[in-house]
Amino acid sequence: MRETARTAAMAGLGVLVGGIALKTGASHTVWQIDPYKCSWCGLCATACVLQPSAVKCVQIYPMCGYCKLCTGYFEPEPNALNTAAENQLCPTGAIKRRALEDPYFEYSIEEELCIGCAKCVKGCTLFGNGSFHLQIRHDRCVNCNECSIAVVCPAQAISRVPADQPYKFKSREHHA
Amino acid sequence: MKQPPPQPHESAIALTRRGFLGALAGSAATATVGAAPAPPSRSNPYEYKVDHLFKTDPKHLLYDTHGTLRLPVSDGRRVAVGPENQIWVSAGKTLLIFTSGLEKLREIQALDVIRALAVDADGTVYVAVKDHVEVFDPQGRRREPWNIPAANTWFTGIAVAEKDVFAADARNRVVLRYDKSGRLLGRLGEKDTSRKIPGLIVPSPFLDVEVAPDGLLRVTNPGRHLVETYTFDGSLVGSWGKTSMGVEGFCGCCNPINIAMLSDGRCITCEKGIPRVKRYSAKGEFEGVVVGPESFPEGLRTGAVFNKWDGSMAGVDAATDRQGRVLVLDQASNTLRIMVPKKPAATT
Q1: Nearest C-alpha neighbor of A158 from the set A15, A35, A45
Q2: Does residue A154 register a pLDDT over 60?
Q3: Does residue B112 contact residue B133 with C-beta atoms inside 8 Å?
Q4: C-alpha gyration radius of chain A
Q5: How far is the C-alpha of B249 from the C-alpha of B246, rounded, in Å?
Q6: Distance, in angstroms, between A4 CA and closest chain B CA?
Q7: Interface ipTM above 0.95
Q8: What is the chain A residue with the closest CA to B42?
Q9: With an 8 Å Cβ cutoff, are B303 and A125 in contact?
Q10: What is the distance between the alpha carbons of residues A128 and A64, in angstroms, rounded to a whole number?
Q11: Distance of CA B92 to the CA centre of its chain
């Protein structure tokens, strides 16, 4: 009887330990930002162990308004709606603006230049449709055991996600 | 040099199990703190500075709050004024009807989430849900819903005139003109160079229409930051509006989101981004602020409740009554507030 109980206890412990290991094992999970929790604080640009950061802005085109006055691209009060550096919000000029049919413009991110500062994300979310948001790019992220951005993230927006579903993109379907 | 021999009391400390574990935990904590890198500074060198835009200069404030009502049903979205100054509010699928003093009279259930409503002079109410229009007679009985041809319709505004009903379809960037039986009579606001109509630009699901006291329509053109005037047959008569984060203009990518008309032709505008309700003259001159951004809850100001793309993007709606009051519905706090013009300061 005692032997049976001991075996059951050991088996239970094994399942528990195995479950925890599976859940926390770095080889099965990666870090990612929940765009709906992100508060655009700017720490992704400065707290990452990589410089420039592994965090990049992504553009969800189906959510974009293709606005002439894109509040993720332009300073809050730009001198003019053109591509002059003084009018651009992005500190590294990582957002590209391309004219489509009048009065629509397409905005895309040049990831090599993006530092993940979230200025554009805040502008787009506060005053636009929120199609810009941050994601950790896994072709760059070194998947630290403890993510140094997650440690300081005031919104606790960064957590481990399954490696086979490594991104948390916004989507229109999510909202609808 | 010889070390002094250990004193008996030093070598014979009675270390209990609890004390040992406590000491171990303390050492571990100390070691962890000592080994952890200093947290990075929380200052943000890339800060997007817009806080100053969320404050209203008191000299622009034209109205005082006369009363507020927390809605008894969640998801308050639109407000309108009906006969006898009754206040009609939509909340989810429910129509709430109040007296002008905010006493609840009754409620009506629609079949889907209500996105806009307009009340006719006889009490008939036209309710726009996502892709069709429901009609309720003055007793609250549902009439046959209008059959709207499937065209990815996304109604966000509705207005009623003597013989016509106008429904603003944000997705198709058009205002549809119906008679009161639901027969489609025409389309307004679409790009037409032969009629010198530049077309409605609607980046986010907000497009509103109102019938003005001059017998013409006012239609928002949010992507162009304009309020446009149309005849019922779709001729563009004029427009006004200015793009600006400043209080005199319309902010962000697309505003105003909703409008209401005062009986003398002045226009009340509602904005998102910088949530604010303002008053313009009949010619479109900025007159002042009804409710400023600082009066709305934090979620509305920070955009924390903006993350919806189904037309329920948190925003503000307004209506006016015959007393000249402005009724402001704030979706984020689900609160209706009655704003009355400030009394002029007494002069000696």
Answers
A1: A35
A2: yes
A3: no
A4: 21
A5: 6
A6: 31
A7: no
A8: A43
A9: yes
A10: 8
A11: 14
For residues A168-176, give the mean pLDDT: 67
In angstroms, the CA A70 to CA A98 distance is 12
The CA distance from B303 to B48, in Å, is 14
Match 């574990």 to its residue by tokens. B21
Q: Which of A76, A154, A174 sits opposite B53 (nearest CB)?
A: A76
Residue pointed to by tokens 């817009």: B50
Could you give the CA distance from residue A40 to residue B47 in angstroms, rounded to a whole number?
9
Q: Mutation test of the interface with chain B: which of A34, A69, A88, A121, choosing the one with the most B Cβ atoms within 10 A?
A: A69
Strands (E), chain A: 29-33, 55-59, 95-99, 105-109, 132-136, 158-162
- How far A127 CA lies from chain B's nearest CA (Å)? 4
Torsion angles phi and psi, residue A46, rounded to 5:
-110, -20
Which residue from B230, B198, B195 is spatially nearest to B214, judged by alpha carbons?
B230
The CA-based angle B113-B165-B279, given to 5 degrees, is 80
Among A55, A79, A127, the residue to mutate for chain B (most B Cβ within 10 A)? A127
Question: Quick one: pLDDT band at residue B12, thresholds 50, 70, 90?
Answer: very low
Q: Which of B67, B77, B64, B140 is nearest to B99 (CA)?
A: B67
Q: Please report how many Cα atoms fall inside a 13 Å half-sphere around the Cα of residue B135, on the Cβ side.
A: 18
User: How many angstroms separate the CA atoms of B300 and B13, rounded?
Assistant: 62
Q: Which pLDDT does position B347 carry in this prediction? A: 60
User: Phi and psi (nearest 5°) for A62?
Assistant: -65, -20
Whether pTM > 0.90 for this model: the answer is no
Counting DSSP H helices and E strands in chain A, the numbers are 5, 6
For residue A119, list chain B residues with Cβ-Cβ distance below 8 A.
46-48
Closest-CA distance, B69 to chain A, in angstroms, reads 27
